[in-house]
Design a protein that fits this description.
121 residues; Cytochrome Bc1 Complex, Chain D, domain 2; two-stranded antiparallel ribbon; 6 helices
């Protein structure tokens, strides 16, 4: 008798597990052209040579051009979740969707020293 009551619960758990795997398989693909129109959020700090942010601590702001697309998207996601701590970056990342993050990652990954779209990167 007990086996009959457990079986529906196991089937339900299995269904939820499969649904979770399917959701993970639908990874967002970035688009560099779409990222170009969203990069205005970044250029104010990240494209100024030798720029140093002074809040909360003074540190050099990294250039984004040529960085790995997945690294940029995962960094933005970490700021959005609060895993990385910088108030300005957290606010900006909080306004971005997963698609926006992937697009920005692809845009900056495509930048080279000779890229005409954003020569300062």
């Amino acid at each position: 008798m007990k086996k009959l009551t457990i079986l529906p619960q196991l089937l339900l758990a299995f269904t939820f597990a499969l649904t979770g795997f399917a959701a993970q398989a639908q990874e967002v693909k970035g688009n560099a052209a779409a990222g170009s129109s969203k990069s205005w959020l970044c250029v104010g700090c990240h494209s100024i040579p030798e720029y140093r942010a002074d809040y909360p601590l003074v540190y050099k702001v990294p250039m984004l051009g040529g960085q790995n697309a997945a690294y940029i998207a995962s960094s933005l996601a970490a700021y959005k979740k609060g895993e990385r701590k910088h108030p300005t970056m957290r606010a900006i990342a909080g306004s971005l969707s997963e698609q926006d993050m992937a697009d920005l990652g692809e845009y900056y990954a495509a930048q080279t020293a000779s890229s005409p779209n954003n020569p300062l990167k």
